[in-house]
Design goal:
The complex is a heterodimer of chains A (188) and B (579). By secondary structure, chain A is an alpha/beta fold. Chain A is built from eight helices and six strands; from the N terminus they run βαβββαβααβαααα. In chain A, strands 2-3-1-4-5-6 form a six-stranded mixed sheet, with helices on both faces. Chain A is globular and about 50 Å long. In chain B, helix 11 crosses helix 14 and helix 15 crosses helix 19. Classes of the chains: A alpha/beta (188), B alpha/beta (579).
């Protein structure tokens, strides 16, 4: 059983990313379940989606203490959900900071050194997806960069991933999303 | 072998309706039910529409059913309250073609105003309630619900929950079966619910429910999975998945019909197992009925009536073992907020500045209640803002509401707000109603409505003019303002709340997330001119943050150049530039 959690800030594309993972697992012949977040929770709030695949999946969500791969599109969100990790689980984090309103209005402080702190207790791989995406020409494809990096720890071949990516993203953006995925997949 | 695919619960419900030969569906958007209609609209064979509210939607579906076709109505749990007037009487009339009402409950309150349990309404209306536990069952049980509807001559409630509607799992597809429309026959005792008919139909309702309670023990949608008989679970819906995850060895009675309960099947199961738990989210609907039969089961003394369940909570109860390894970090909360470029922000920033209280309504603009905008003081249900404001005035007098307005979205106004406005006109009210017209049903994901000019199927149609509508019911003072014209808005609001005339202010600007909108500009802050006063931060735009030195930074990806912040900078540090 593989338990994956995709987290981020509403609007960052966590939903699409988890759908690509789900489709890839389905194509490989696994039983798959995804759990998504819609409605009010999406509006700039903290967003969590789950993907589980294996021989037989019952619960569509993932328990605390059982996540194999946590993909976070933002640093603070990685820290918020790190208690879902298995001891040997892997955290993939997009190295970006988005201040929640509680920080903007000065009620709370954005924690410093999140990546260093999480690296002490977990296997963590950070990537500046936004920077790489911008270099490729569209800062919005950062999801595909981060997914590319995460894909190495989830399994399946690069070809399988690109197949589902191609079938899922808007047709006009296929090429740049594939380049973004490859950039993530080829990084360390 | 049939094609396998991965589907959202709501998509599977739509597919099931299509496969069942449904010809008509009517709905009002509401999380977590909205996508059912959106997916169904893609099938050419099914007429699908957005109705202004759930009462209308159910009546439309009932009309189609009486005319002999299979029809569907979809709504969220609180939508069923709006539709409950036709619901209770449709239980008496029964159906022509099959009629299924999909109702999506929201345990855990992901996007709702309460946590009510539709199974209770099913019981009190004497209607069968069917509940699936994954996408495949959602599709197949929906088809079965139509068979039951026609076989027992009753509308059927099809209950889903957020976790089911918004989870994806594997579905194998079948073809659509075309069902012949039933020939129409005039049947006054069945369809005209005047006392003489209704007295007779009440007997029919009770007899039907009694018969279903017996027959349901043999329904194929109930399933007994015997394992270790020391421990048994009676469960339904997504809670079944939690039982299988946490207690794979236990015996399980999985109910597909949760009203009326299959008594014989349950009695057999309870007598076969040593300890039986009823594992059901929200109210003890199944548990209390089983107890009333004199059987001993465990239930709500172990598990909460609030929120969503999980395998973890069951495991913790059974074994006392926590699965969590790492401690939970204490990090700043990230609650949902209005999007960058949202026109509601502009309106609330003005109301905040004028220290005005707002009776709010249901929609994204409910977020105007939280910091830093802090404007909305009440939110109850669809359309309630206008009637609450009216009640305040009539209880406490005109002076009391000189620093109050009602704020309501365009879609919500057409849902039930218009009734409340008619009441204000009729009863000589003086309040100020602000219609936040963003040209869409925003919160649920941008659905069309009667004032957008487009149908659910994407066809062009007449767009109701909200100003004309308000004038036609007798509002003399109707003022349209651009939501981002802060000065005009401020002036209009001040004049209106201080005046004695009922006023509707229509604040117009499209939702920033509507597809196809172009944003040629973005805002930048000149850090040389920035005095670090923080005035621009008080409008609560997520694109505006601080640099380490305290000056303001505007995120170039997030900002869409609405320019609202420019109005709040006294030092001219913020300006628009081309993207």
């Amino acid at each position: 059983m593989m338990n994956i959690m995709v987290v981020g800030v509403g609007g960052q594309g966590t939903l699409l990313t988890s759908r690509i993972i789900g489709k890839t697992a389905l194509m490989a012949g696994y039983d798959v379940k995804l759990s998504e977040v819609h409605g009010m929770a999406q509006r700039g709030g903290s967003v969590v989606t789950f993907v589980r695949f294996g021989e037989k999946v019952f619960e569509p969500t993932v328990e605390e203490g059982s996540v194999d791969v946590l993909i976070s599109f933002e640093r603070l969100e990685a820290q918020r959900y790190a208690h879902f990790m298995k001891p040997d689980g892997k955290i993939i984090v997009n190295d970006c900071r988005i201040d929640p309103m509680t920080v903007v209005i000065g009620a709370k402080t954005y924690p410093e050194g999140i990546i260093e702190e999480l690296s002490e207790s977990h296997e963590l791989h950070a990537i500046d997806g936004g920077k790489i995406a911008k270099e490729l020409g569209n800062s919005k494809v950062l999801n595909s960069v981060v997914l590319g990096l995460a894909a190495k720890y989830i399994g399946f071949s690069e070809e399988d991933w690109i197949k589902t990516l191609t079938a899922t993203v808007p047709p006009k953006t296929v090429d740049i999303n594939v380049s973004a995925f490859k950039a993530g997949f080829g990084s360390n | 072998m049939s094609e396998k695919t991965i589907m959202l619960g709501n998509e599977a419900i739509a597919r099931g309706a299509w496969e069942a030969g449904v010809k008509l569906s009517s709905a009002y958007p509401g999380t977590p039910s909205t996508e059912i209609s959106e997916y169904l609209a893609k099938y050419a064979e099914v007429y699908t529409e957005w109705a202004p509210n759930e009462k209308v939607a159910l009546e439309v579906a009932a009309g189609g059913s009486i005319a002999g076709s299979r029809t569907l109505a979809c709504m969220k749990h609180v939508g069923l309250n709006v539709a409950s007037d036709p619901l209770y009487t449709l239980a008496y009339t029964g159906v022509g073609g099959g009629l299924v009402i999909v109702v999506a409950d929201d345990p855990g309150i992901a996007s709702s105003q309460n946590e009510q349990d539709t199974r209770m309404i099913g019981r009190s209306a004497h209607l069968p309630v069917i509940e699936p536990s994954d996408s495949m069952e959602a599709k197949e049980y929906l088809k079965y619900a139509f068979e039951l509807s026609e076989q027992y001559d009753t509308p059927v409630i099809f209950r889903t929950t957020t976790k089911l509607s918004h989870s994806q799992s594997i579905v194998s597809l079948s073809d659509r079966v075309e069902i012949a429309d039933k020939a129409y026959e005039r049947q006054v005792p069945k369809y005209v619910m005047m006392p003489a008919s209704a007295i007779g139909r009440h007997k029919v309702v009770e007899a039907r429910e009694d018969k279903m309670a017996v027959d349901s023990s043999a329904f194929p949608i109930n399933r007994v999975e015997y394992g270790d008989k020391k421990l048994g679970f009676i469960t339904s819906g997504v809670a079944y998945q939690y039982v299988k995850e946490a207690a794979p060895e236990a015996s399980v009675l999985k109910l597909g019909i949760v009203n009326p309960l299959p008594r014989k099947l349950i009695e057999e199961f309870v007598s076969s197992c040593e300890t039986v738990y009823v594992f059901e989210e929200l109210e003890p609907v199944i548990e209390e009925q089983i107890r009333s039969w004199g059987l001993s089961v465990k239930g709500k003394e172990c598990f909460t009536k609030q929120g969503e369940y999980s395998a973890n909570m069951l495991r913790l109860h059974l074994t006392g073992e926590e699965t969590q390894v790492f401690p939970k970090a204490d990090v700043p909360a990230r609650p949902p907020i209005l999007c960058p470029g949202c026109p509601h922000r502009s309106v609330f920033a003005v109301l905040n500045k004028l220290k005005i209280h707002a009776a709010g309504d249901i929609g994204c603009y409910t977020l105007g209640a939280v910091a830093p905008l802090n404007v909305i003081d009440t939110t109850v249900c669809m359309g309630s803002s206008i009637s609450l404001l009216h009640g305040m005035e009539k209880a406490r007098g005109k002076e009391y509401i000189k620093n109050w307005v009602a704020t309501i979205g365009d879609s919500t106004f057409l849902h039930t707000g218009i009734n409340s406005l008619i009441n204000m006109v009729y009863n000589k009210a003086s309040g100020t109603v602000m219609i936040l017209d963003n040209r869409t049903t925003g919160m649920t994901g941008h659905q069309e409505h009667a004032a957008t000019g487009k149908t659910l199927k994407g066809e062009q149609t007449y767009a109701i003019d909200l100003s004309e509508l308000c004038r036609s019911v007798g509002v003399k003072r109707v003022i349209e303002v651009d939501s981002f014209d802060v000065k005009a808005l401020e002036k209009t609001v001040k004049e209106s709340v201080l005046g004695d005339e009922l006023t509707v202010i229509i604040c117009k600007a499209p939702c920033a997330l509507i597809k196809g909108l172009k944003f040629p500009n973005r805002c930048v802050c000149d850090t040389e001119k920035c005095k670090k006063c923080g005035a621009c931060l008080k409008i609560g735009c997520p694109a505006i943050t601080k640099n380490p030195d305290g000056t303001v930074k505007i995120d170039e990806t997030m900002c869409n150049g609405c320019g609202l912040c420019e109005n709040y900078c006294k030092f001219g540090a913020i300006s628009k530039v081309a993207r």
